[in-house]
From TrEMBL:
Transmembrane segments: none annotated. This is Uncharacterized protein. It is found in: Nucleus. It comes from the Eukaryota. The lineage of its organism: Eukaryota, Fungi, Dikarya, Basidiomycota, Agaricomycotina.
């Protein structure tokens, strides 16, 4: 079993795109850009080995939390659905994303839970990741 089956089952989907409360940012004509993988030794790209999420179905995270907690960018969050929520001033400006889908996106970017954990440790220590590793043979100077 993989991540999705373990966490959601066969036909359960928390985010229903047909629901008027869930919306998505306008997509580019060519579609949302693919997630750029961040390669690191700790990354595990086999989704069957990722295991279960620690978050419950129905939990949400706002955009700022998604970017800081899961180390994602605006481009990574572009294809995900969100609900507008009221901020502390009473304006409907906060975007709340499904936490399981945000976590899944982060795992796809960093290589599972171990890759995300290593990325968080690197960020804490000030290490910059290699998004596109250099060529070993035939490298140019």
């Amino acid at each position: 079993m993989g991540y999705w089956e373990d966490n959601y089952g066969d036909n359960v989907d928390f985010v229903n795109p047909d629901d008027a409360n869930w919306q998505r940012d306008p997509q580019p004509p060519e579609g949302a850009p693919p997630i750029k993988r961040v390669e690191r030794p700790e990354s595990e790209w086999d989704t069957a080995k990722w295991g279960k999420s620690k978050y419950k179905v129905g939990s949400v995270v706002n955009k700022t939390g998604a970017k800081s907690q899961f180390l994602l960018t605006d481009k990574d969050l572009l294809p995900l659905y969100y609900k507008k929520a009221y901020n502390s001033m009473g304006y409907k400006t906060t975007k709340n994303y499904d936490k399981l889908k945000v976590e899944r996106t982060a795992w796809e970017k960093y290589g599972g839970p171990t890759g995300l954990k290593a990325a968080k440790a690197d960020k804490k220590n000030g290490v910059k990741p290699l998004v596109n590793p250099p060529l070993i043979s035939g490298s140019r100077l």
